[in-house]
Design goal:
Elements lengths: L2 H38 L7 H30 L7 H30 L4 H40 L1
Length: about 160
């Protein structure tokens, strides 16, 4: 087995574990945790359901990225990554990450307006910044894939 084959296999195992962990978080951890927080902080109890919906949508976005990455890994193993079919999966990743980032930015704006202390807004600002970097990095990676696909098509035409 090649190094790439081992890396793809290990990455698939980690993606499967991450996906299962996200499902557990959506079904078992988040609802109970937010219910507990609503009981402990009655003043913030109105945030229970909006935060639950926000959290689940964010995790669904991550799950979409995991599934698309899995499909792209399949294309890598079959040496079909430099094809037009790969762009559907990459575009889905970009849109999913963009959606998650916009929702996160909205929460950052809301929390900054509501919370008086600097701790949570600063933490969210860092998260929004990191999310923006990831989205833009994915856009650049898509452009590089486009260039590589064009070069591969040109080389195939010459040969």
């Amino acid at each position: 087995m090649t190094t790439m084959g081992r890396a793809v296999g290990l990455l698939r195992v980690l993606l499967a574990v991450l996906f299962a962990g996200l499902v557990v978080a959506q079904v078992a951890i988040l609802p109970g945790t937010l219910a507990y927080l609503a009981e402990e902080e009655p003043d913030l109890a109105y945030l229970r359901w909006p935060m639950l919906v926000f959290s689940i949508v964010e995790l669904v976005c991550v799950q979409v990225v995991i599934v698309c990455t899995w499909k792209l890994l399949t294309m890598v193993k079959a040496d079909r990554i430099f094809s037009e079919a790969a762009f559907a999966w990459v575009n889905t990743i970009v849109w999913s990450m963009g959606t998650a980032w916009v929702l996160l930015f909205g929460v950052f704006v809301y929390v900054t307006a509501v919370v008086s202390g600097p701790g949570l807004p600063v933490l969210l600002f860092g998260t929004v910044l990191a999310g923006g970097v990831l989205v833009l990095l994915m856009v650049v990676m898509r452009a590089l894939l486009r260039q590589a696909t064009t070069l591969r098509s040109d080389m195939d035409a010459v040969i």
